[in-house]
Amino acid sequence: MYYVNPNIKSLYRTSYNESRKQFLRLDMNENPVGLPTEFFEKFIDNIRPEYVAMYPEMSPLIDKLARYLECQPSNICLTNGSDDAIRLLFQVFGEPGKKVVSVSPSFEMYSVYSNMYGLVHEPVTYDDDFQVNLDQVMNSIDHDTSIVVLLNPNSPIGTAWSETEVRAIIEKAQKNNAIVAIDEAYYYFSSSTFVHYVDKYDNVMLFRTFSKMLSIAGARIGYIYSNSHLIKEAKKASSTYAVNYFAVEIAETILDNPQIIEELMDKEREGREYLLAQLENHGYEYHFNNGNYLLIKTNKHPQYLFDELKRRKILIKVYNNPILSDWIRVTTANKEIMQIFWGSFKEVDHN
C-alpha cells in the first residue's frame, strides 16, 4: 500500500455533488443574484486573451487593498478564498498536538483543518439561547493552545463579540504564544470590525473574502491582513499563484467601483428587512446576528421544509446539531428573492 498521511486517511469529508444551477440558492450564504449584469458584462468586455495567457499579477490588487486598509502591501496575503486563508493558518502556525479553541457550531472547516494538521479541536459550545460563556473561552486558552478562532459574526448563530471580550481573548492568547484568527467573512453585513487589533497585537490575523457581499464566490479570492512578520511566514506556504487572473481582475474592478458595493449592501438590507418584517408579522421566532442569513424556528420539521422547498427549486440549510435541530437557515438577498422565498415558505410551513 502507498503511504497516506494518517491525519488525511482518518478524515471524514462530505461534499455536495448535485448541480445547484437551476435552484434559488439560499443555503450557502452566496448572493443568489450576483453582481449587477451591466457591471459584470462591462468587466467581461475588457478581458483580453493575451492577459489570460499570462500568470496573474497580484501587486495592483494588493496595493488597492493596502490603501483601503491604510496599511502596507507587506501586511496582506491574497488567498484562494477564506478557505485557503484557514489552511495557511493551520499549515504555518498550527503546532501539532496543541489545541485550537473556537466556538461551536461554526464554520466546519476549522474543525476539518484541525484534524488535517494534527491539532486538537476544543470547541466552546453555544447554549440553547445561542450565547457562549466568555469564561469558558478564556479557561480553554492555556500553554497547550496554538490557535484561537474568533468569527465576527459567527455563522450560523451567536451574538457579536464586544471590544472588551476580544481584547481579553487576544491578550490571554498572546501570553500563551497562540495566534488569534479573526474571521470577518461577513464583514460588509456587520456593523463591527476588529481590524484595529492587527496593529495593536502581534498575534492577530484577520481574514476577509470577496465571496459573500462582494458576490464572487465562484472566483475564489480572499485575503489575510496581519503584521508583516506573520504575513511573510504565511506567504512561504502559499502557492506561487494562489489566485487566478479572473479573480484578481474582478476583485480590482469591484474595489475601483465602490458604488457597486453600496448598491449590493442596500439591496441585501432591503430584502432582509422585508423578510424580518414578514416573520415578525406572522409570529415566527428567528435569530439574526448581522450576517446575510437568518435562523427561523419553523412550524413543520426542518427536513420536511428542506425537501418541499427543494421540490420548488429553493435550497435552504438544515442541521443535525441538537441546538439547531428545530431551525432552518436562510440566506438573505434582495427583496425580489426574499418575496419568492417567503411565498413558498408560507405555503409549506402553514399551521
SSE layout and pairing:
Elements: H1 6-9, E1 24-25, H2 37-45, H3 49-52, H4 59-69, E2 76-79, H5 81-93, E3 99-104, H6 109-116, E4 120-125, H7 134-140, E5 145-151, H8 163-175, E6 179-183, H9 197-200, E7 204-209, E8 222-226, H10 228-237, H11 245-255, H12 258-281, E9 285-287, E10 293-297, H13 302-311, E11 314-315, E12 317-318, E13 327-331, H14 335-348
Parallel strand pairs: 1-11, 3-4, 3-5, 5-6, 6-7
Antiparallel strand pairs: 2-8, 7-8, 9-10, 10-13, 12-13
Helix pairs in contact: 4-11, 5-6, 5-10, 12-14
Describe the structure.
A 7-stranded mixed beta sheet has the order 2-8-7-6-5-3-4, sandwiched between helices. It is globular and about 55 Å long. The chain has 14 helices and 13 strands. The model has no long low-confidence stretch (mean pLDDT 96). The protein is of the alpha/beta class and 351 residues long. InterPro entries: Aminotransferase_I/II_large (IPR004839), PyrdxlP-dep_Trfase (IPR015424), PyrdxlP-dep_Trfase_major (IPR015421), PyrdxlP-dep_Trfase_small (IPR015422). Keywords: Aminotransferase, Pyridoxal phosphate, Transferase. Residues 23-335 form the Aminotransferase class I/classII large domain. Its cofactor is pyridoxal 5'-phosphate.
Q: What's the overall geometry? A: globular
Average pLDDT level: 96
Given as residue ranges, the uncertain stretches (5+ residues, pLDDT < 50) are: none
What is the count of helical runs?
14
Strand order, largest beta sheet: 2-8-7-6-5-3-4
Helix content: 40-55%
Number of domains: 2
Question: Any idea what the CATH architecture of the largest domain is?
Answer: 3-Layer(aba) Sandwich
Largest sheet descriptor: 7 strands, mixed
The CATH superfamily of the largest domain appears as: Type I PLP-dependent aspartate aminotransferase-like (Major domain)
CATH topology of the largest domain: Aspartate Aminotransferase, domain 2
State the total count of DSSP E strands.
13
Classify the secondary structure makeup into a structural class: alpha/beta
Order of helices and strands: HEHHHEHEHEHEHEHEEHHHEEHEEEH
Q: Termini, distance in Å?
A: 57 Å
At the first level of CATH, what is the class of the largest domain? Alpha Beta
Rg: 21 Å
| Percent of residues in beta strands | 15-25%
